[in-house]
Structure formats: structure tokens, C-alpha cells
Amino acid sequence: MPHTLRSFLDNIHNRILNIHDPVRPETQIGILCSESRSPLMFHNLVGYPGFKLTDILIKDRRGQAAALGLDNIKEVCPFLAKQMSAGPGRSTIVKDGPVKEVKLIGKNADIRKLPIPQHSHGDAGRYLGSGITITKDPETGIRNESILRMQLTDDPHKCPFWMAARHNYSHYLKYVARGESMPMAFAIGLHPVYEIIANWSGRHEDFDELEYAAGVLGETVELVKCETIDLEVPAHAEIVIEGLVHPTERMPEGPFGEFTTLGTGAEGPAPVFTVTAITHRKDPIFRHMQATWFTDHQPLITLPMEAAYYNRLRDTHGNTKVLDVFVPPWASQFMMVVQVEAKWDGQVTDMLMSALSGPNLHVKVAIAVDEDVDLYNAEDVLWAIAARCNPQTDVWVHPNSRLHPLDVSIPQIGDEYTVMRVGGKLAIDATRPPTWRKKERDSLGRVDPMGKHDPAIQKILEMVRLPR
Ligand SMILES: [Mn+2]
Q1: CA of 432 to the centre of ligand 1 (A)
Q2: How many independent structural domains does the chain possess?
Q3: Do 177 and 278 sit in the same domain of this protein?
């Protein structure tokens, strides 16, 4: 059986909160998804009979472990790094699939009839932020996937969108140079691993992100041809939106509350997606990705980033014992915590420089902690900074670095590019001295409370740990 949104929801069914009360996607979904700690399924969407809506599937390590088929949350980053190192899987084109059960072509394809929420107060409108965006290089025929934000308007078929992702933007520029419209499709509602890998930003000259995700899952992904454009889309998606992007058409786009939880960042005249068809399952589940603070939006991008940096940082000095990498979803993707056991002086320093100069522009603050610090726990990380860090020698600011276009705290350079921000990056070494200097290292060892390993009290210990 292929990995689908439905197979994933079956696997986590006992964690899902099913909501049967009437809820309005345009005005009420935003806060409900933002506040939820666990998976949600809305069964009664006012104005959208037949549709269900789900979100908050992988916001924490527990959901991410479930997506990767793991029990231990500490394996998430190393496992994904290993699977991604193994390279892509395959795709195959099939004649038909569940996503073709209902076909709305041309005038019947009104995007406003999908239960697409408005995410935040101040947004320019309802926003699709959960569609795996598929384009194809007109020269090589190799597809690209990413997840873009697209704004709904009063026009049932016209949607401006922000194209920040590098690969499909380069596709668009090739179509612009030819004076042709670019075919583009949005696939909504896939197994989360396809959503996660769609946000990977590495090079791929002879495969696409769908095939890469299929490799991580150990399967061949089934694709079907679109109805109105020359493109292939996942056969087991819940919903597919097909359309064309004209080479010169522009509409105002934004503002949109982004993953930063800030309401501004990339407004401007934007390319326009013209809807040509919508196909979906008979009983479609709309996969929403709420874009505010600590939702699925952050880990969808940070997971492939963590895996890529896990491999990259282990290369420091040819052999650095990096144990785990965590980009906290509650820190806007701009902070990276690395758990490391250094052998030599300077090793953590160089590893932190590598973290701050890696492939992603997101990393503004890099923190190194020891193997005995729970890097998923902000309290423990802040303890390490407080107890194991001499600010005179262990903290530094690197100036004149390029930062993420949506990092509004960093000044913008010039007004020709909306995406060029240059500022400082912060490194914090909160680790003990390296292992070859055992005496100094031991002086910063943390004590274990009495009885920690006493088997006789482990049951009581579990009870006292539970929140009451
Ligand atoms: Mn790509």
C-alpha cells in the first residue's frame, strides 16, 4: 500500500482530536490550529459540505517520528539524515488514481470552493499554504516541488503567489525568457514525508522531491497526468489544482503572517496563477498548514534542514561527533541547537561557523550543547547557556552575513531586491571543554539527584513527573 495522508492518519488515529462542531475556515480555523498541541480533524466545515480539514500532524518530534515510522524521537534527525544520504527513489506514471474521482475543469474550477482558511488577522485574504507546488524545467523535463504561499482573490481563477523557492523560480525565469506560460500544479494532502521533502532545498539535476521522498519511504511514487496542463501529479493526493502562470502578469500579493509570526516581509507585485482545473477525491480531506507560531509550518522546513546540517556538521574537521540537530519550531526557524561531543579545542567553534554559513539562510543563532543536555527542551538549553558558557570567550557575533528574506529584524539592503537582508549572526558555545581536557570538562559535569538510577522507585518517578 502506498504511503498517503490517509495511511498516516490511520497510524496516528488515537492522537487525533475529532471536532464535529461547525467551524468556519475563513475566520475560525487559524486560532484553533495555532493553539493545538496535537493532530486535529474538522468534520463540519460551514460552507464546504463533503470536505474535512486536518492540521498539526508533525509539529513536534512525536508526530515527526510517527511520519518516519520511528518510536524513539531521538532517532528523527539521524534517521532522516541517513535516508536522505541514500539518494532518491523512483516514480511511475499510472492511468488513474483517487485524486481523479471528481474533475472540475475550466469555469467549474472555482478555487474559492475549497475550504482554504485565512491564517491571521491582517492577511490580505485566504491563503493556500499547504499545496505541494509542482513545476517542470522546460529544458531538462525534471520536476521541482516546494510549498509556496498563494493568495485567493475575488476572481475564482486568479491567485497571486510569492515565489521565494529557488528551483521553481528558476523554472519560471526560463518560461519568461521563452515568453510562454508555465504549467504549475498544487497537490494537497499527501503523506507528511512528501510534504517534508518538498521543502528540502538541495540540488537535484536528475530527480525531483517526490522521488526523493519516495526513497525515504522506500516506495515508488505513483503519478497521474494532469487534465489541462503538461505535468504529472501524485495519484494519491486528496486535491490537485492545475493552472498556468503567465510570463508577465502581476497582481498585488500580501501581506501574509508568515512562519516568523510577523505580519510582514515580502509584499509586492507577484506572478499570478490562473486555475484551469481542480481534481479531488469524492470525500476530500483538505490538509491545512497553519502558518503562525509553532505549527506544522516550521518543522516542514526545518526537518530536511536539520538532516542536511546533521551530515554537514559531522564533516567539521573531517570527523566531529554531532549527536543531534534541532531547529526549534517555536523559534521561527532562525535558531539551531546542536548536540555535540567535541574532542579538541576549536572544534565546536568551527562547527558553529559551519552552522551559520550553511545552505539555509535561516540560521541566525547557533547554540552548541553537550550530550547530557535535552536539546528539545528550552529550559535545559537555557540552563546550559547559563551554567556552561563564558560570554567573554564562548559567544561571538559574526557581522555582514546574509540572512533570511523574511527575517524582518534584519535591515534590507537597497530597494531593488525585496529579499536581500544583511546583518549579524550569533554563536553560543554552551559546551564543556573538549574530552581531551578531562579535568576541566569534569568540573562542569552536572550532578544526578540521589536515587536517579534506583530501580525500586522508577514507577513512583514516572508518576511524579506527570503534570497534574
Ligand atoms: Mn528543488
Answers
A1: 39
A2: 2
A3: yes
Rounded to the nearest angstrom, the distance between the alpha carbon of 179 and the centre of ligand 1 is: 23
Give the whole-angstrom CA distance, residue 257 versus residue 120.
6
Q: How far away, in angstroms, is 306 Cα from ligand 1 center?
A: 17
Instruction: Please tell me the distance between residue 374's alpha carbon and the centre of ligand 1 in angstroms.
Output: 32
Task: Tell me which residue has cell 545552505.
Answer: 359
Rounded to the nearest whole angstrom, what is the distance from the C-alpha of residue 79 to the centroid of ligand 1? 21
Per the structure, the complete domain to which residue 22 belongs is given by 5-287
What pLDDT is recorded for position 165?
A: 66
For residue 449, tell me if it sits in a domain: no
Report the CATH number that the domain containing residue 267 is assigned in CATH: 2.30.110.10
Nearest to 79 by CA among 61, 101, 56: 61
Question: What's the gap in Å between 302 CA and the centre of ligand 1?
Answer: 15
Note whether 275 and 364 are same-domain residues. Answer: no
Interval between CA 77 and ligand 1 midpoint (Å): 20
pLDDT along the chain (468 residues), means of 10: 97 97 98 96 98 97 96 96 94 98 98 98 97 97 96 98 85 96 98 96 93 97 98 98 97 91 83 98 98 94 95 96 97 96 97 95 97 97 98 97 91 74 97 97 95 94 91
Asked whether 288 and 114 are in contact (CB, 8 A), the reply is no
pLDDT the model gives residue 416: 65
- pTM of this structure: 0.93
Distance CA 223, CA 208 (A): 12
One domain for residues 131 and 19:
yes
Cα-Cα-Cα-Cα torsion 56, 359, 379, 296, nearest 10 degrees, comes to 0
pLDDT at 403: 94
- 116 lies in the same domain as 237: yes
